[in-house]
Write a structure and sequence with these properties.
This protein is an all-alpha fold and about 210 residues long. The protein has 13 helices and no strands. Helix 3 packs antiparallel against helix 4. The radius of gyration is 19 Å and the shape is elongated. It comes from Actinomadura miaoliensis.
Length: about 210
């Protein structure tokens, strides 16, 4: 009961300790409360501990409830549920990773969906996932673009036909992002900033990167 009440304490350190206590001694009665707190918890470290606590419970109990959260109108609820599903890694959740989530207007939700998708995608469905992810090339600021590049690269060489198509698109931001992603796939140590700057140079020269 103290841990249950502690999850709503005004002090983030108390909430952190409470989440740790619940994860250390899992109890199915806490699952709904943990998921409820994920949707509203303002502190990153507490949210991460809430996710850890959920992973300590049976996935047969947590996954269906987390999938329900994906329909929430609250962006943080969707984002944190996706993050937790990626940590649990139960592929029964795959059908819930919809195109709508992968293209969600909220960057944090979309980024969480990309990370969850590459963890949960069944073998053989990577090309289809890559095609959906490629529709988001050029989206957002550097942090969002890096998240998408990492997700695509995690799928491996199956992304190359999709990237090549994007490199010849009309939108220069899409072309740049596709070229930078290919550079990172070929040379992971290059760094995203270098890859983006090199991609900008190639786009300005009217080249695609595949010509190098």
């Amino acid at each position: 009961m103290r841990a249950f009440q502690g999850l709503e304490n005004g002090s983030s350190s108390v909430r952190l300790q409470a989440a740790m206590a619940v994860g250390t001694a899992p109890d199915p009665r806490f699952i709904d409360k943990l998921i409820e707190r994920c949707a509203v918890e303002p502190d990153f470290f507490v949210r991460d501990m809430l996710t850890w606590a959920l992973t300590r419970h049976s996935s047969s109990l947590t996954v269906p409830r987390l999938i329900d959260e994906l329909r929430s109108e609250r962006a943080q609820a969707r984002s944190q549920a996706l993050h937790t599903l990626s940590k649990i890694g139960d592929r029964q959740a795959w059908p819930a990773i919809t195109r709508a989530l992968l293209t969600d207007a909220d960057d944090e939700v979309a980024r969480s969906a990309w990370r969850a998708a590459v963890v949960l995608v069944p073998e053989g469905e990577e090309p289809e996932l890559a095609a959906v992810l490629a529709t988001q090339l050029g989206r957002g600021e550097r942090e969002t673009q890096l998240s998408l590049s990492r997700a695509l690269i995690a799928l491996g060489d199956v992304i190359m036909p999709t990237l090549r198509a994007a490199m010849t698109g009309l939108d220069p931001r899409v072309r740049q992002h596709a070229i930078a992603t290919e550079h990172l796939l070929r040379n992971p140590d290059a760094g995203f900033e270098f890859a983006i700057e090199e991609a900008k140079r190639l786009v300005a020269l009217g080249r695609t990167g595949q010509e190098d």
